[in-house]
From TrEMBL:
It comes from Halorubrum ezzemoulense DSM 17463. InterPro entries: ARM-like, ARM-type_fold, PBS_lyase_HEAT. The lineage of its organism: Archaea, Methanobacteriati, Methanobacteriota, Stenosarchaea group, Halobacteria. This is Phycocyanobilin lyase. Transmembrane segments: none annotated. Keywords: Lyase.
Amino acid sequence: MSNGDDDPADAADDGEPAETAAPTLPDDATEESLTEYLDEIADRLEAAETEADLDDVEALLADAETGIEEADLPEPDEDDEDADDPRGDLEDRVAELRDGVDDARGPYGEDVVDAIESAAGTVEDTEWTDDGREDVAAAVESFVDAAADAIDDALGDADEDPEALLAEGEAADAAAPAPVDQLVAALDAVAGAVTDADLDADDDADDIAALLDATDELEAGLDDAEEWDDLETHEQLRAQGYYDVLGHYKDFPVEWAALKEHEARGNVDMILLALDSLQSEFMERHCLEAFERMGKRGKTEASVEEILGRAEKRDQPAIRILGTMAAEEATDTLVEYVPEDSNPQLQKVVFKALGEIGASEAVQPLANQLDPDGDTDELVRPHAARALGLIGDTRAVDPLADALEAHPSDDVRAAAGWALRQIGTREALEAVAEHADEHSFVVSTEGEKARDALDDEAEPAPTA
């Protein structure tokens, strides 16, 4: 079986030595001839200078694989682990040479683009300190300058000029480095220009090498730039102004003293910063208690997102906080917990939170909890009634009146009476007033208060 060109190459006109003829493999290949053939391929691989040379080596390796497959080679003794395996050894040699071809190829323009895109992702996704941002901007500017030297024509024809993008970012604030989005845009512009340049691995090898050297420098600069994660927790907090609220006299620990001051000032972002940064159970508890005390003052998009994430894990302190915040964003999550009869403590917290939120979507699920034939714990049902009163939706009047009329538990009936008084419509008050003379003190008390409210309504307004 013949492989490659059997004729030796003519000597070059300029006196260069003749090109070595491609190796050939006899039709009846043996282990020895196959080994010699692979040795010659290895020599050609070592001498390869262009992608075309490597293509020739790959073609020879394909022939070698065919030769090995067709050769009549001795098979190893399956019972002897140390027995020779000529075919396996030759196949391993081919695989090794293929790896050598892969290692020898390139680099290509695509490798440069991949490196630039990776660096752009690092710039965009990393949280840099102020000093780090300055170092990142310097590294990107240096890279853009180096890229301009390597592929000046391609950058000149690019849709966006990376140097202009950087200058535009710096113009917004001469004292600050270009913003991250401008840095990323500049890197994307260079990557696009490299793609458009369609660099050839052979003809443009020097430009590709220069660009890869520049990307190496860029990556090194990004590695050296300071990230927030590089700082100790207290340094991060200090850098972000967490301790700035402290005077000369501090409680211990100082993080707690600062937290109390941030709570007093309504600095929600700083409380969230402490909650995220300080991992002790002590500080976590105090941060959450601060939010609970702040109530609606502590409600921001960021704080609701943080607390709701905890509530989605059935965290009861977080659910209480959402109630004090009147965070309507939590309604869908909390309504899902209403029928969890196996966890009465969770239900109590959820019912109150829904009431404080005023979640009208919860009216029917809460009303279902008043059913004396249901599985809800008897100690939980009064909380469902009170939640309905806090919500104040008139759709709750009928189920509350039914509970007041017929529920076997006086605690549930009294809670239903209280809830009807909170709703406060004439229909609701009349339903409670009917029980003013009840034998049950807690129920009759609600009835008397409802009757007094109706009497107040009936009194004519004083004349001027």
